[in-house]
TrEMBL record:
Keyword Repressor: no
Domain of life: Bacteria
The protein, known as: TonB-dependent receptor-like protein
Any single biological process term in GO: siderophore-iron import into cell
The organism of origin for this protein: Xenorhabdus cabanillasii
Gene3D superfamilies attached to this UniProt entry: TonB-dependent receptor, beta-barrel domain (2.40.170.20), TonB-dependent receptor, plug domain (2.170.130.10)
InterPro entries the record matches: Beta-barrel_TonB_sf (IPR036942), Plug_dom (IPR012910), Plug_dom_sf (IPR037066), TonB-dep_rcpt-like (IPR039426)
Gene Ontology cellular component annotations, sorted alphabetically: cell outer membrane
Region forming the signal peptide: 1-20
Keyword Acetylation applies: no
Membrane topology: Multi-pass membrane protein
Length: 387
């Protein structure tokens, strides 16, 4: 084994001029300089998104909160209205634990050949903090082998200006890249046009009221999100323009009587659709959303060490979702098509009571919570059927 030594030489250069001292009085001795370095593993394995960071992002879907988190993303980000966290390739089946206000908030849903989705439903306007830990976390609370994502709902401190005890936050947006999902039938027909940005059919809005003093906090919020199917981009390698009866055909196909007919689904007749089966600029079916959300939370300090809290939230949504096994289907054995299916529905109510004891004794730090989830869902399990 060869031993190698590395030396670091430090130079200090002053930008100011000075006169040289007399050599007879100069002191050539110098103090020893120690250089230390350490690797901040916590910074690499943990990501904390606070309310200030979240407010900088343009969030249309809940999954958009992970735009700035390397190694962390969400599956079904445009077609489920939910968050299904993927950390470093690990996803589903409890591999990544996701919680909201320290309560389990995951719904397992069978998705055919795609596997199982672990969905978490929360309105992005009510997210105040996202704490992401990559890899197994051995600390207290819920954890998974892939990592842990703990989301906190907004608190009065996210709303109030320092020094004030009452405040109101209004938040809204209008969208211009969507069309009514009811106007979409099959993707081999001309795509519906985008809705006007001023008709209010594609918009989001929320209002949050907060109050806080030395011993009590109260927050209430209402949010509404409505949008139709979004339209795909116009650049890149996508499907060809629509050509009836089937835009995936290389050329018009004629039957034995000389009439135009759907082309057979064979390698010789079907046009390669590129990276997507959707033409450029066309509506993407099953990506609409109509969501109402409510949030009510309060906390009170009994004294300097004891605090009690309560949280109630309701997420009520009708949304489009794509069943992957039905992304491309065959109509009567000939035409490749994708249809606009019936929308799915979910109603998730969450209740939580909490108690904290922050004792002056360093050996005592108690956190106790009692929570309940009330879930009612009607997911899409195939192209034509709702469970």
């Amino acid at each position: 084994m060869n031993n190698s030594c590395f030396f670091i030489t430090l130079f200090a250069v002053s930008p100011f001029c000075s006169f040289a001292a007399d050599e007879s009085t100069s002191d050539n001795s110098s103090d020893t300089i120690y250089v230390y370095s350490s690797l901040n593993l916590k910074k690499n394995n943990e990501i904390l998104l606070d309310s200030e960071e979240l407010n900088k992002q343009i969030i249309i879907n809940p999954a958009d909160i992970f735009k700035s988190t390397p190694g962390v993303l969400s599956g079904e980000s445009r077609s489920s209205g939910a968050i299904d966290v993927n950390i470093r390739g690990l996803q589903g089946q409890g591999r990544v634990s996701t919680s909201v206000d320290d309560t389990i908030n995951q719904t397992a849903l069978y998705r055919g050949y795609q596997g199982v989705s672990n969905r978490t439903y929360i309105d992005p306007d009510f997210i105040g903090e996202v704490d992401i830990k990559k890899g197994f976390y051995g600390g207290s609370g819920i954890t998974g082998i892939g990592g842990t994502v703990n989301m906190k709902t907004i608190s009065p401190s996210d709303i109030l200006i320092p020094g004030d005890n009452f405040g109101i936050r209004l938040k809204g947006s209008i969208l211009s890249n969507h069309s009514d999902y009811n106007r979409y039938t099959w993707n081999d027909e001309p795509s519906p046009k985008k809705e006007s940005i001023f008709n209010g059919k594609n918009s989001t809005g929320s209002i949050v009221v907060a109050y806080a003093d030395e011993n009590f906090e109260l927050l209430a919020g209402v949010s509404k999100r409505v949008r139709g199917n979004y339209h795909s981009g116009k650049k890149g390698f996508g499907a060809n323009s629509y050509k009836l009866p089937g835009y995936l055909c290389r050329d018009e196909y004629y039957d034995d009587n000389g009439d135009i007919a759907p082309c057979p689904v064979t390698a010789e007749t079907v046009q390669d659709a590129g990276y997507t089966i959707y033409p450029k600029g066309a509506a993407v079916p099953n990506t609409s959303e109509n969501t109402r959300s409510y949030l009510l939370k309060s906390s009170a300090w009994i004294n300097d060490e004891h605090r009690v809290s309560a949280v109630y939230s309701l997420y009520d949504s009708t949304f489009g979702e794509t069943y992957v096994a039905d992304t491309t289907t065959i109509d009567k054995g000939t035409t490749v098509s994708v249809s606009q299916g019936p929308n799915a529905y979910i109603r998730l109510a969450r209740y939580k009571l909490g108690y904290d004891w922050k004792s002056s004794n360093p050996l005592i730090d108690l956190n106790f919570s009692l929570w309940r989830l009330d879930l009612r869902d009607r997911p899409k399990t195939s192209q034509k059927y709702i469970r």
